[in-house]
Here is the input.
Amino acid sequence: MGLVNHNKILLRSEPFMPGDIALVRELMGIIDTLDQSVLTGGIAILVALLLLMMLSLVLFRRTKMRWYVQLIGLIAVVMAAVFSYQTVYDNDKYYTAIPVDGYEYNRTDVSGSRGFIFMFTYEIHNAFMQKPEEYQAEEYQKMDESEVTPADYDDAVKPHIIMVMSEAFSDISDNVHLSMEEDPLENFKKISEDSLMSGYAVTNIYGGGTVVSEYEALTGISFASLYTPTMPYYYVRKDIDCLPRLLSSIGYDTMAFHPGFPWFYNRQNVYEKMGFDSFFHCDNAFYDDREFAGGYITEATTFHQLISKFENHLNSSDAPLFEFCVTIENHGGYEGKYGITEASVECDIPIKESDLLALTNYLYGVNRADEELGHLVEYLETVEEPVVLVYYGDHKPLLTGTFETIGYDLSGEVLEGNSVEQYQTPFLIWENQASRESLDLSENVAELGFSDLDDFSVAYLGSTLMELLGFDGLSPFLQYVNTVRDQVPIWNLSVWASSGGTLQSKDDIPDNIVDLLSTYRSWSYYKLFDDDISN
Here is the structure.
């Protein structure tokens, strides 16, 4: 476990958690990407330990104990383990009494200060979702009933929707300490100027955990409200009410794209439970004619499939289409990722050469993603049917050394300045010319007051889209999510912001906001575990 914890901290800047045990297949996939010398060393250590154990059994063999003595010993050990867990390891008083050398919201700092074993054992209870206090499923079942039916949207104009979550997409290149000859975000910025909405989506993850931002945007359920370090897809074990299912109910065909392995984060099962009609991944749509860059299937290959399936749909169906796409090309690590050995980025303060090279490779990948975004928008402008595009990043890249050097706050605490820089990723919502002519959603933006809504949690992205399109009546829950958004636009694992935009500690939440968020959490729990949408 210590070896696993050490390597997870190196790869993801977070320790090994109990919920990670459920992600064995994902772990095996990550192992394939590790340096062979690291794997060889780890295997050698394990083999050596096994040999030592076998040798000790031979050298220190004793007379076999009677069975009842073994049984008594086993019972004693189990009782001692249960007693110590309940009285010590699962005790808030003992756990919080140990000061953290660093930041309370940084799990790596917590692990280093309180000890990995203590932290891991303490977090076992968080691996299982705790039911909110005073939660009554019947109350939220009644709140979840809608007077609006899918039939009410029969005559509505339904644009095609393409939603793209771009791997590690960020605007770190705009940092005041950095400069380069060409802007890697040229297309994104140009498109943003003509967008319906653009700004920052505030995530709950940094450097990894893509599935969290994916889950939040599609469901409206914030990871910060779940109170668990376990990846949210682990809890999706039944059909769940979310964007693809809601859109399907009013006539949309729905497709999901992820050019990685279908089993990663159990997407092959989760997407089906979310209501996607089809899922395209590396074992089917991306199996032939695929290109790689930096160790992953390229953005160009991914968008080629996205557009190809879109065109096939236009030629074969009159139904509106919802495409949700996760890209993976610019996944870390970044040092040497694209084979770039000379830095093209300049920094006006001292920085390690290795950090600068990693940053150069990363921004090269951002530029490649930006180019494909430009090509996608050019294509969509030629489509004669209305299309709405949502584009956002899943998380900031894992460039901890660079971020600390150029002044990003990675503490998770509320400090002077912007304490959510670590979690901000750019987003935009754009419509093509056909949509401007038939829908002109800019009028909705003005009427809803979205013109000033430029920074909000990624969990509000899907519900905001539904409200913009006039489809939010399908889900009382998403309507409530938008109510939360209006009063608490930023709701992060460590900080929150009121409608005035001032960041505050989660230790300083007024009673009215506490009540608002308490209902949000309980309703989220209902949607995830108790909502029977088969009825």
Summary: Residues 447 and 468 are 10 Å apart (CA to CA).
